[in-house]
């Protein structure tokens, strides 16, 4: 397809007739500055082709120049194949369209339809053309600012591509027919199912109707069951009533009751006779028992008296027999008493002898201890005098070890200072020759040889011969001064401790030290002489000893302690033996006493028993005598015989009466009659209640039956089944529709996947020139969705504007190639495209466009004159025409 | 002695699966049968009608049905109606029958006791009312020893099965009861089809058909008993208005169905025809769609009621069918997929066939 020329009039800002002509089949450039109306030219082309001439929508109104009521007019000349067509379209005011070629001339709607057929787009809606209606060319004629958009092609364009691809992939997606079917299916499903698959209106109604019918059927069935139950109850009640009535009217029962009444009367008569006989028998028995008891009591009393007699005799004998035993015990006690008294006397005597011996021993020991104490004191006092002398001597001697040490140190200092002074000053030796005279040192004549350290200026003169001056060096003076100080310190210290020399000081210090050692030894001796004395109760220490002995006289030497001790120990032994003897005598006396006391108690008990048995014997004998007096033996025997005979008679009569009344128990008979009467009363009440129940149930059966519960139950069950069947049918229909929809969607997806491949394969060569190794992904809608570079995927939205624009142009080129390959009209118009491209990309893109222009017409509208200057292209200029 | 023998009126039968309109019409037809029987009796000079059980469809049909029936019976005042409780409407104490008896018009007699009833000077009726839905004893057993005037005609009236359908067949009647009991005629009910058991024993069948698959139905019997030992003459009288037809059609094309529809029970007028059709075979998509349209949108509306079962009708899509859907593209692909799925004889297969048919119909509709 080629646009050849274009004439625009009254279209937006392009008022005066404007003509573009000379478009070539290849690359065409319309280079104009901003604001000259390049974009309006593209709008006019799109309007001429895609908008219906008769449309009056708001968008069409905008074609008019602002504020003018003129008719926007666009005339286009274009080639398709070998045919040149002239399209004239006038909008709004006397709208018209004409399409002419050598093949014919079309007007109005026919022209519009011919145009759609030629270029493969769809009729625009009343609101105007849109992406859907414009078709493939709409996608290829890109408006300003749209070129970088990676939009999905509209439905018509998609359809065109799909048709173009059909030959290659052998499949076409359904297009409008598919959409219509899917829409119809959706609509049908919508009546049955919600988008989430829950039942919708029609199905809900059917399901509800089914549920309601089911509930109705259940209710009717329940009602019928209720009715049947009522009838069953009625049957039951009637049967029960009949049984009750039979029972009530049973003659057997009446006869039984009469028999019972008779029996009760007989039983009553017998009962009174029986009670009388029982009373008599009881009285006879009581009398006999009383007499028998008396006889038994008498026998018992006789026996008791005999037994008492025997006990008394035994007790008296026992008492007599015990007298000897008692006498023996008494004698034993007396002899034990005597032995004890003798032992006690002996013990008293021995005890006082032992006491005196012990006292004598103690006094001897005391005297000996005291004497030893006095002797220790004497010795200690001697030591005390020596200690005092030593203490005083030490006190007077101030040369302690420390003082001696400091004097030694000072002495060492003097020696050190002297050494230093000697080292620093010359040593001067003057050795006068024998008979030499007149030799002086510092004016003092020197007789014999001397040697000294010359620490000061020395003048040695030999009178008349020579004067030699020796001057020590300055360092000698300082050493000399230090020496002098040290000597002065030593001298001062010696004076302080009143000693003449350091040697004297050392001797003094040694003395003081030896004295101190001696003092320590003496003090230790003194301490040993004054230990604590337990015997005399004296504490340790000289002062305590002195104080303790001050008031005591020194005793004389005591006698032999050993003898005293022997005497005392013998006396003690005797005393202990005496005490043991007393204890033994006491024990023997105690045993004898106890034995005696026991014998006494036994004797008392025997005496008491004798007395008691005597009393018992007397009592029994008195009682027996009283009985015999009250009723003599013979009289009692006669009365007892008579009573026994009377009892036998009464019992015989009683047995006879009891036998007669067996089986005529008045209580159980009365109870039986009572129960019979109660049963009859209950039966009557039951019959009453049956009558009421039956009447009630009859009424209920009548009322319920009139409604026809069985008929209703059956009808309701059948209706419920029918309603359920309808709901099932609708559910199945919904399933069927869902299956159909799913299947169509799957088929479409499969088809789309297959035809995407050829589009991708056309884009790839272009893309590789721009981005080597890159690959573009398309979605089902042909929308570029992602770029894969070196195995890494990027979303197209994340790419730069420039790359996005370039990808969009390449995709369109691929679409255009696709159309061309199928012999469909294709041309590319780019309005201000590639504005985001860098120089290198721009160069590549223009190369691609130039190459493409060998296959199809490419028109570039641009304001970037310079950028396109090097590109080989037909340059088309806007030409204002004469308004006439 | 001349009388009409009928049975199984089943008044109040609900026909719940049908539309309300069809239900009303069929219910009305059952009541109308009473009038038709009365007219037939009159025209043949019979004053007695014996109804051998199942006058009502159920034990409690409701007062409205009873009243409507009584009104029609009463209207035929010159006819004496002898009604017998059957297994559908047993004479249960306090049930339907005591109520009917209480208000019955003078010409309506309820046979509620198994006891002889003199019909006229010569004839005694021996009724065997059913007291329960099911009884294991033969309800006619008492006929053998029933005392009737010597030399008189004994007519039995009973409801139950002659044939043995297994050990538990209820209400079973001895097939030779008429011979055993010396009956001149035994009028039986229970079977809705008319059956002549032997010369003296007959099922009349229901006077108004109410189900499919009966060989002969919709009649009443005019019985003439010349004497106690004479063989009765039995004449079938057409009473029913509706014809119930059940057919199974094996078809391979639309033309088959057109032909079968044209030949469907030509004797019955369409508004009085109740049909149950079951189609099998396999047809093209186009045929199936038009067959469905013909039956559901055509015949179903012509008939009183059509019970249609197309589930057995297989689908054999032709190349034309598929081409109509599309020669290629996703719709064709979808059609091919559904066709493949429809080959399976399963719920899913049938659903796929239905979906394919729907696709075809939708496209056809869009085309129209």
Kindly describe this structure.
The complex is a heterodimer of chains A (884) and B (368). Helices cover 66% and strands 11% of the residues of chain A. Chain A is an alpha+beta fold and 884 residues long. In chain A, a hairpin with a 2-residue loop joins strand 10 and strand 11. Chain A starts with a strand and ends with a strand. Chain B is an alpha/beta fold. Chain B is built from nine helices and 16 strands. Chain B has a six-stranded mixed sheet with strand order 4-3-2-1-11-12. In chain B, helix 1 runs parallel beside helix 2 and helix 5 runs parallel beside helix 6. The longest helix of chain B has 24 residues. Chains A and B meet through helix 6, helix 7, helix 15 and helix 16 of A and helix 2, helix 8 and helix 9 of B.
The chain-level mean pLDDT of chain B equals 88
What is the count of DSSP helices of chain A, taking H or I runs of 4+ residues?
A: 18
Helix/sheet category of chain A: alpha+beta
* 3D shape of chain A: flat
Strand content of chain B: 15-25%
The biggest sheet of chain B, with number of strands, parallel, antiparallel or mixed sense and barrel status, is:
6 strands, mixed
Overall helicity of chain A: 55-70%
Distance between the amino and carboxyl termini of chain B: 69 Å
What are the segments of chain B in which pLDDT stays under 50 over at least 5 consecutive residues? none
Major beta sheet, strand line-up of chain A: 7-6-5-4-1-2-21
Order of helices and strands of chain B: EHEHEHEEEEHEEEEEEHEHEEHHH
Q: Average pLDDT across residues of chain A? A: 84
Radius of gyration of chain B: 26 Å
- Contiguous runs where pLDDT drops below 50 for at least 5 residues of chain A: 169-173
